[in-house]
Amino acid sequence: MPDLAITEERVRVPEELAAKMRKQGYHFVGRHSATKICGYTKSSMLGGHACYKNTFYGIRSWRCIQATSAIGCNLACSFCWRIIPEEEGYRWNEMNAGEWDEPVAIVDGLVEEHRRIVSGYKGNKKVNMDRWKESDEPAHVALGLTGEPLFYPKMNELLSEFHRRKISTFLVTNGTMLNALKKLTVMPTQLYVSVQAPNKELYDRITRPKSLNASWDGFNRFLDVFSSMDTRRVFRLTLIKGLNLIGEDGYAELIRRGKPHYVELKGFVYVGGARNPKRNLSYDQMPVKDEILAFAERVAALSGYILTEYDKNSKVALLCSDRDAAENRILKFEK
């Protein structure tokens, strides 16, 4: 039997960096996993807006765990709201060295931490008690909180364990872990890849790769395999004015290559780590609704996709590959 007694004290993150992450709301699980309550999980429990994944795909935001199975990331994307270890004087692969925790222990730990976090909302006068009670039984997990989840070598077993517990899985990868992708035999409910740029020049400038396998050519090879994965496939674009809110034909070519069922075009938000002066970004680079929709319409026209929906709270437009994808985008979940 695996060791289920994994504790935060075993976390690989250097203590000074871990302290900053805890202050930002991270809860560590074992050596290399973490969770943090999503703003929309909180909002949806308190009678506010749910996540765009609720709008687009029908997930219940108040029952969703925001998590990762591997804290380290081999990219340093300039727009990322998260802490980048190198900016704090550490190396990314310090977080991904050593033994790996067992899948059952990770799922146990993430569910336990999620329950501990949401338990604190019971006394809030604004809380929707039906949703609060449901939040104690998570039904979804978004594996994309921070880092690159596919560094975790037992992803098939981890996904199986979530699914065994009737928890749907939304796996977000940065498109660098080709070998790990090829080894996936258990498919997540939805498989996301972050698409940061329409060409090599902008890819290098935005992602600032930290490992040899993180390259534009490698990303394109990743998309070739991604295109045949037997699950719902999603592209996620983060659009930044004055940087990558250009090159619609380049994005359309990547869409043809990766064959996603859905493309999410999200406006950049100037928060968290993105405000670090070293990133050279500014508040004015956040696109507004009309700019996102106009860009989405141009990408749709070039790729043959259908502009289907826009979530104003998250500033995300949704493209669907065809009418069937549009009509069947709402997932069916057990109660």
Describe the structure.
The protein is of the alpha/beta class and 335 residues long. It has one domain: Aldolase class I (TIM Barrel, Alpha-Beta Barrel), CATH 3.20.20.70. Helices cover 33% and strands 16% of the residues. A 10-stranded mixed sheet has the order 1-2-3-4-5-6-7-8-10-9.
| CATH topology heading | TIM Barrel
CATH class: Alpha Beta
Q: Which series of helices and strands comes N to C?
A: HEEHHEHHEHEHEHHEHEHEEH
Task: Determine the N-to-C terminus distance.
Answer: 30 Å
Shape: globular
Mean pLDDT across every amino acid position:
95
Query: Can you summarize the main beta sheet?
Result: 10 strands, mixed
Strand numbers in spatial order across the main sheet: 1-2-3-4-5-6-7-8-10-9
The figure for the number of domains is 1
Low-confidence stretches: 1-5
Number of DSSP strand runs: 10
The helix count comes to: 12
CATH H-level superfamily: Aldolase class I
Radius of gyration: 19 Å
Give the DSSP E fraction (strand runs of 2 or more residues).
Answer: 15-25%
Q: Assign a percent range to the helix content.
A: 25-40%
By CATH, the architecture is named Alpha-Beta Barrel
- Structural class, judged by helices and strands? alpha/beta
Please provide a brief summary of the model:
The protein is α/β, with parallel strands linked by helices. The chain is built from twelve helices and ten strands. The longest helix has 17 residues, at 103-119.
List the helices and strands and how they pair.
Elements: H1 15-23, E1 27-29, E2 33-35, H2 39-45, H3 52-57, E3 64-68, H4 103-119, H5 129-135, E4 140-143, H6 155-164, E5 168-173, H7 178-182, E6 190-195, H8 200-207, H9 216-226, E7 232-239, H10 248-258, E8 262-267, H11 289-303, E9 306-311, E10 316-320, H12 323-327
Parallel strand pairs: 3-4, 4-5, 5-6, 6-7, 7-8
Antiparallel strand pairs: 1-2, 2-3, 8-10, 9-10
Helix pairs in contact: 4-6, 10-11
